[in-house]
Amino acid sequence: MTLPIALLGLGAVIAFAIRKRVQYAGPFTVGCLLAAIVLVVSFDAGTTTEVLGLQLRLSELAQLGALMLLGSLISLALTVWIDEPAYNFFPTALAAGAAVLAVLTLTAPIAIYGALILALLIPVGSFTFQVHRNRSYEAAFRHFSFVLLGGCLGLSALALSGSLPRDQPPATFVLLVAIIVVAFALKLAAIPFHTHAALLAMEVPASALALYFGVLVPTTFIAFAEILTLSGLLPAIVQISKVQDLLLALGTASALGGAFLATGSTELRRVTAYSVIANLGQALVGIATLSGPGIVGAIAIVLVTGAGATQQLLAAGAIERRSGADQPSATVAPLAALAFVIGGFAMIGAPPLVAFPGHFFVELIAFSYSGVLGAALVLSTLGILIAQLRAAIAIFRVAPDHWRVESRPVAGVVGTLLFLALLVGGMQPDGFLRPIAAFADEFIRALRPL
Description:
Strand content: under 5%
Shape: globular
Number of strands: 2
Number of helices: 18
Oligomer: single chain
Largest sheet: 2 strands, antiparallel
């Protein structure tokens, strides 16, 4: 498993050296990401290896996550290469890809957390921060601060949980798990820790935003579930309801708050960013139910939401570059506009896309947990639906005499391919859900050890 990580890491160094030659850096980046996917798929699930005392294991979920997240990185690299020249993106994408693979395959909680912090910080200096834009500097600084604060809290709590004997008072584990939950809430931009995401939404390049919401946020959520499973703290969560209540409260607040904020804006980037936050809230509720269907639904939601966010943010960037951010119009980029609209189907979990099972599982288990909780998640989904409809109306508010297809319809083509992949997955959901269900079994076994 070290080979694809090393390939992407070495590729990042080479891409940095040739980054200003976009005609070479672009195809090189895409080739490295494709090669990494082929290598990951070629390994058998369950393959383990050890490097520097750290064990790496390729689980079924790691294979699925690598396929989807590295696939999103490929779509981003293609768009930047052809339609949005930003030479710093290529080494950033490869370095982030290496860190994502490390998060998916490492088995030590502290190592997973360290790789995650690295993945979240890579875009700050190399791509998000733009010297000539003060607001971009402020957005990068806020993002760095939130990640660093969450990183310090999480690393401290994980180190303590691994060193303390298990005969500690219950209050000790309540505090440790609560700190870990808050640390991840900071990095996931869960409400009320979402202020840096709101600034990022408008002040960084669309491809950087897609890297964050489409790749790094889903990776962060998977890391959260992995660390809970591997840390040995899950039985303490079962015994102490306050931690579960904290997760439920964060999830419900993010689901409702994100949907409410999304309905209040027609700016394409904000609509997408807040829709992601709302879906992450629903996924946190799924985790908080501590049930098999809840875990399956939660991870399914975040993976599909990442793909939908990538699709919508690339489309939003293409439209903005042609018509401006203030008045997005489908007349200048009809294929990108169509990609944004159909990406909204993934955001709301509409059938027959593979997005539907995740939302269905989480809302079903939420209703069985509490009628009020289930109603809150349904209301969140309705809010996302309204926000997506308002954004679509804003894009297609003007009917031109004739449509002018954009000269480089990369975002439209990529969005169409992503939508078709989600549609095929919805027709044959077993291949998508089975790896997630295997991880849910591990989660439940860690929750109730024999």
